[in-house]
Amino acid sequence: AAAPADWDTPLAGKVAVVTGAARGIGATIAEVLARDGAHVICADIPAAGEALSETANKVGGTSFPLDVSAPDAGAKLADFVLERHGGLDIIVNNAGITRDKLLANMDDGKWNSVISVNLIAPQQLVNGLLAKDALREGGAVIDVSSIAGIAGNRGQTNYATSKAGVIGLVDTYKSILGEKGITINAVAPGFIETKMTAAIPLATREAGRLMSSLQQGGQTVDVAETVAYFANPASSAITGNVVRVCGQGFL
Ligand code: NAI
User: Fold this and answer.
1) Quick check: is 159 catalytic?
2) Considering the entire predicted model, what is its pTM?
3) Which residues form the Ketoreductase domain (predicted)?
4) Closest ligand 1 atom, CA of 116?
């Protein structure tokens, strides 16, 4: 590992993009990367509106409205970072959605939208950046998977499949990116308290909490600190990993 020039701000001089940064886990990731010294470009769907600029202002970063599932999202992102910063060091593919239904009621619309945002977009963004040579040597790609991508989950065939696919991306891209001195790792959170999980019935949330070895869910900061570790030059010898976050040790 390359020791950072300043241990308090290990990401000083680095430029990071966090997708889905308007709220939840993404907003906390943006905060933690900025605390570590990075300039953070906060990306989210245009409909996120004020919430996105609030995160960007809070972290002293830039607001970048971007639907990651648009076919030209990767090219747009590459153009933006090349023009403003001459390149990009860190990308956190955090944007994600759920469209839950038991398998019998799982229609194509729900299947396709989840696969598109959660699985195709992380790949297209990285491809778009690589096509324009916008990812700098020494950089890091961090994808947000899920415990559902490791263990599956009833009612979430689309979501679990998309998150399992992300692990496939990490395993495959590690050599593609490795040639350029860039790492790729994933975090697989268990139950984290955000607006996404607030929609889950309380009894189901409680059952999930009790199944965890630590008997607890996690907070957004638990995920963000793990992401920050993968972004840190101190972890530059670590690639191709998936780290479970929040004590869901029943798996
Ligand atoms: P959230 O719903 O609170 O936030 C997700 C953000 O992504 C929102 O700001 C949303 O506008 C944005 N987003 C959605 N579609 C987008 C698109 N097409 N383009 C750009 N941005 C888009 O969700 P939360 O809980 O913060 O989740 C963040 C990530 O963590 C997701 O990938 C999720 O699947 C994953 N995760 C969450 C867990 C949890 O328990 N909350 C557990 C495991 C994984």
Assistant:
1) yes
2) 0.96
3) 14-190
4) 18
